[in-house]
Amino acid sequence: MAERADVVFVDGVRTPFGRAGEKGMYWNTRADDLVVKAIVGLLERNTSLPKDRIDEVAIAATTQQGDQGLTLGRTAALLAGLPTTVPGYAIERMCAGAMTAVTTSGSGIAFGQYDVVIAGGVEHMGRHPMGEGVDPNPRFLSEKLVAADALNMGNTAERLHDRFPSLTKERADRFGMLSQQKVAAAYASGDIQPDLVPVSLRSDAGWGLATEDEGMRPNTTMEGLASLKTPFRPHGRVTAGNASPLTDGATASILASSAAAKELGLQTKMRMVSFGFAGVEPEVMGIGPIPSTERALKNAGLSIEDIGLFELNEAFAVQVLSFLDHFGIADEDPRVNKWGGAIAIGHPLAASGVRLMIQLARQFEQHPEVRYGLTAMCVGLGQGGSVIWENPHHKKYGKGR
Amino acid sequence: MTDYSTIDFSELAALTDDEVVTHSYVRDIPLSSGRTLALVTLDNGRDHTRPNTFGPASLLELGATYDALADRAAKGEIHAVATTGKPFILAAGADLSKIAEIPTRDIAKKMAQLGHHVLGKQATLGVPSFVFINGLALGGGVELPLNADYRTVDSSAAALALPEVFLGLIPGWGGTYLLPNLIGIENALKVIIENPLKQNRTLKAQDAFDLGIADRIFSPVNFLEDSIRFADGVLSGTEKVVRKNAPGKLERIAKWDIAIKIARDTVASRLGTIPKSPYAALDLLKAAKNGTKEECFALEDDALADLIAGDQLQASIYAFNLVQKRAKRPAGAPDKALAKKVTKVGVLGAGYMASQFALLFLRRLQVPVVITDLDQARVDKGIGYIHDEIQKLADKGRIGSDEANRLRALVTGTTDKADFADCDWVIEAVFEELGIKQDVFAEVEQYISPEAVLATNTSSLSVEQIGAKLKNPERLVGFHFFTPVAVMPLIEVVKTPHTDDATLSTAMVTAAKLRKNAVITADTPGFVVNRVLAKLLGEAMYAVDRGTPFSVVDEAMAPLGLPMAPSALLDLVGLKVGAHVLDTHHAAFPDRFYRSENLHELAEYGTLLEKDSKGKVKGFDKGALKIVAGGTEPMQAEEILVRLQDGLADEVHRMLEDDVVAAAEDIDLCMILGAGFPFQMGGLTPYLDRVGASERAFGSTFHDPRIVGVGA
Predict the structure, then answer these.
(1) What is the ipTM of this complex?
(2) Nearest CA in chain B to A79
(3) Which domains does chain B carry?
(4) Which of A212, A328, A361, B296 has the highest Cβ tally under 10 A?
(5) Residues of chain B whose pLDDT is less than 50?
(6) Is B542 helix (H, G, I), strand (E, B) or coil?
(7) What is the pLDDT of residues A305-338, one digit of tens each?
């Protein structure tokens, strides 16, 4: 019979993230190839894991068409050279796709049905622009189920500024600038690179190799940010400088039961403590992580004070700030996004959840004094997702509260 | 020693007019060790159906690229240079169309030197050089990596080969020196001599790695990433490269010359001494034992210049284009859209030939196939043979068990021709006698639809006459295979005066689905291949019957460069069949085709050649020699040859006058694909032009201009 199991995050890697569009480095690279290279890179550095012991491959993508379609988890497994006996599926919750791949397949481990899974995501926003091929039911508007602008993420961010006047453009810009500076610092100290899988790229100038994120702007200044256009509203507050850019990239992680990890000699980088998903009004989707985090804390029996490190997806600066204000955390609290976030690195929608986990796992190594960390993100159409993790390097790990 | 840097290559620029240039792009790759690798990508901007090739402009650009990188290396900006290709293709070697246009031996030599000059730059960059063999690599596409310090190969690369000898060339951009010194003489002989002469066999990536051509093999999913990491490891000293097949002193002293001699003997026994390129390659491989790189490269330059300026290469390129291009767009073929669907095949007969047909149609068309014969025992035997062959394919791993089950379920046998009712293609392989073939078709016609195609495999009867008793003769077509059916690539599709376009189109499309090359011929005796061979064998027997020793006849005909001497050909096809073929052609054209009573006696006697227990020919059978000993006017070799050349020129000329095929090219295509006539002779007609036989026989030439080299 199945027994409840502890779920551990064994390892995670990602491709360098590229700028979406014709000028971006992945313009000639298929989305499925990106996630396959992430999976292969992940397995290459976890050689003690026999490929036939992988029980599931859950891969997320928002736009499941073309090179992101065709039951992506299964096709990626085959393309990555996994045995035909390894099953796989595709998963979709917009920005929280990879996070949902982790929580869903992780739940299967917790329930004793899997020993080891691969969970990740990919989004090639260049090849699949947001909203590609969507066909929203007319009832959304005719019955006023959502506001007309709820499907445009920039507009939802502007709405957050409306709702919380204390969230000024200046605060958002500063948050954006600091994100750029923190990412640059993390690169300089070599915190990011170890978890990047290099990806070969084809261009008109021949083959190249992606080795780092393409969208970083380390020289960002407040003056520069102030001069940027506000594309969503005249005299609005949301700009390219305080929002995450359109991005191509893929992530992959290995999760296992603690027993299987032990049996197979796999490392434990984090233990999954709890998770929560929650819905909010679609037109202010950015506040989604607030109720989802409250749920995850409740599920874990923890309070926000127990969280020592936060990896919050920076879809928009204002949306992270709304979370911090809600929980009474300062804008520049050192526990939050230590190495910056999506504003600088990029946000390939369904891939981003696992990037948060990769960075949290590495921060856990450097901070054994921290016991619990949070990964959280907002989701289009008004959702939030949160996962709480325990640090195996903490002295009380595995010893209960 | 040749200092390539002092040579003026500007004359070659005249050859670059319509060259599809393979560009060399450079991007810097940051390595995780902190070093920088300059990655050169070869890309001609076309898709994979037009591989990268090295014409003069492509080489000059690559040379300039390497020069610029050598400068950067000297400045310390880069720490390694790697070269790779566009998706699926590294390079398919020299641009053959350019080689064919070279106007003088001097320019031919410069083309050889330019290749050495440019590819050789990889040895003098000042930093380690790598080639990442990401896909197809042929000829110069293999010599490019051979000139580098290190090589990786993508395990999915379609093919690696040095096919030059097959084409009448030699691997002359370093191949004959670098390869044996990398992987040993025996392996090099396999790649440079043996494989090209085995229907141009190529290496899989794994073979190339096992031979030691590549230092590492990586899977395609991360080939470039892994290759770059390997290069970084080599630079850092963490990756060690061991070349276990590289020849040592002992190999040079004890093995090298012997291996060359064995190879030379094998080539001589299989091809004779007419083709030049294998021997030129053998000479170069021998020189590679002790020669320096500079000396051997200079020898390659001269050997390549000689071959490019010679007749054989031009004929080879002509033949190559026939097989690669003309064979794929058969002259006179009606619109493919007219072809009728073939969803069930009937085979009349269940003997050996019929069973081979059934097997081929089964495998290639994957439709139901029904075979029939006079009684159940013969049918059962045929089915048994087919099932056995399917099992053999399964045992060899060529097909899976599902596929084997599928094929077995598709083939049925019957003695009731009513079971042919829903066949839309019926082919006969019954006894080669007109009345029998007429009757069997007339009988089956009662059951099948009026549109079903009837095909006959006759080799010597009139197809039109075979259809004389048919109600619908317009659906009859000749479909002449060559044995062994599974292997020989030619089908002569014979069009009678009644054959309609839909039937002819169906035959052409079906031949293509069987993966055969089809040539359309008129319904004339012997069609193409047998008529030419009958002329040849008739001339041989004529000389023998006059009292010329068989061995002299064999020798006399050797300059045609045929895959086997007349005596061996007779032995292969069978003396009875040979005698029959001469008889039928003599009956059709008594003035021009010789029939030999002696050959009938030999057929009765049963043996011509004396063989050892392994089937190796030791000489002529003494009894056979006695039978043919009666002649009193033996001919000289020269006389035999000229008579043969002139006779062939006359006969081929007549065939063209009578529209047996559309053009001389089709005669050559038939002889190359159906009888193994050699590439380096261009089949037959370029040779007949070249030796003056065409002029003597009909006062003109088959080709204008003649297909000849530019000479020294």
Answers:
(1) 0.92
(2) B221
(3) 4-309 (3.90.226.10), 336-522 (3.40.50.720), 529-659 (1.10.1040.50)
(4) A361
(5) none
(6) helix
(7) 999 999 999 999 999 999 999 999 999 999 999 9
